[in-house]
Amino acid sequence: MQVSERTIVVLGTGGTIAGRAASAQDNVGYRAAEVGVADLLQGLPVLQGFGLHAEQVAQIDSKDMDFGVWCALAARCAHWLAQGDVAGVVVTHGTDTMEETAFFLQSVLAPVKPVVLTGAMRPATSAGADGPQNLADALAVAASPLAQGVCVAFAGAVHGAREVQKVHTYRAAAFSSGDAGPVAYVEEGRLRLLRAWPQGGALRDLQTLRAPADWPRVEIVMNHAGAGGAIVQALVRDGVAGLVVAGTGNGTLHQALEAALVDAQGQGVAVRRSSRCPQGRVIAQEGAALPVADGLSPVKARIALMLELMA
Ligand code: SIN
Question: Domains (ranges, CATH) in the chain?
């Protein structure tokens, strides 16, 4: 029987999956982003019929993620996805901003082939390291003909880029898709599909993204008891291009904060209203002064608005 060799490309960006601690019992006092992506692949089960190619795009703690790394990562994904023998791409990434990177990649690449982000909640040196299983699962998703688009494979579940959120500071099952639920589970290297694969985004000429230093400045402000308009006014004075407000409940805002945001909008600042609730979406009401953020969490609404302002 002829075995056709296809390639899964694994792009490393750092994170806890590549973290090292002084002791195998230490799961919090480690340094993220130390182990190279090629080393992370050592000892994983062989994917029959697939070859692996590893490339280090960045080596950072994902709390420090920036637009430069995003642009470099999107360019490398686009390059590899365009190769006929590449079945899919896996991205190893820190968990803290993984949902943002996933949403950014889906927004600008809208790939047909799978781009699967994964990481770990325990460093590579931990006696209970979760990275190897997560990475093996991500490779299985990237190799599956059922998978398409950008997703996050983590703790046995596969989440769509639009819905996925980190919801726990410590537990290994740190990600959730909220109301929507995961797209699939990975069981012993096989994908069990639960619903239609989410769509979204549009293939964008990456040259149309401005240089990282020139991305429009969009900030997030939050509604809370005693919220006022001073932060919004300061940001407008400082030249902000867009504001996403993480409202309470169904995107509700303290009247002082709302007045400042309406005023900012009147001065040409793009404003979007989202919710600080981890589940559900802001349901638009007729005649509302501020547009809603189309069911996106505040951090994703910010990415969508930056891209919109660059379009
Ligand atoms: C990071 O986000 O790079 C560190 C935390 C993690 O990966 O869990």
Answer: 6-193 (3.40.50.1170), 216-309 (3.40.50.40)
